[in-house]
Prior knowledge:
Shape: globular
Structural class: alpha/beta
Oligomer: single chain
Order of helices and strands: EHEHHEEHEHEHE
Largest sheet: 7 strands, mixed
Distance between the termini: 35 Å
Amino acid sequence: xxxxxxxxxxxxxxxxxxxxxxxxxxxxxxxxxxxxxxxxxxxxxxxxxxxxxxxxxxxxxxxxxxxxxxxxxxxxxxxxxxxxxxxxxxxxxxxxxxxxxxxxxxxxxxxxxxxxxxxxxxxxxxxxxxxxxxxxxxxxxxxxxxxxxxxxxxxxxxxxxxxxxxxxxxxxxxxxxxxxxxxxxxxxxxxxxxxx
Length: 196
């Protein structure tokens, strides 16, 4: 239509439309625009647009992965491990475990690669967008990003990560609604619809 604008496309739809009837453009591993795209690590770079850019271009579903450790494995160590043929998972686990830091922040990750933004920052970007685009909504899936570590360490990291996610969820609770298939667009507007 002549009034089409990627930033406001949901505004063209009626309030009584069930959101389950809308085809929602989405982004897999939405937080990866800032991940290194060098060599073997390029596989972690799924997006070329930041969260803000994705939203402006009309994306309304964001797949976000999080962990509690803010420590990133340096690119040169990952490349060295892969190129030397050493058991990658075992060596990565040893490096992460030896340097593990719980810094009290839920960070965005794609596998072992830190994406450079906290989950709280991602939620802030989304709410800032919704503040200026009140006809829109954003569906977010926030998942724990496991690395396949030994069960005790992974359970510890997951429990810390889930707690940190709930802290972020509380901070933005006035903007978050649980996703329901029967929800109408009018109810969803200007909210984050959370899928976990």
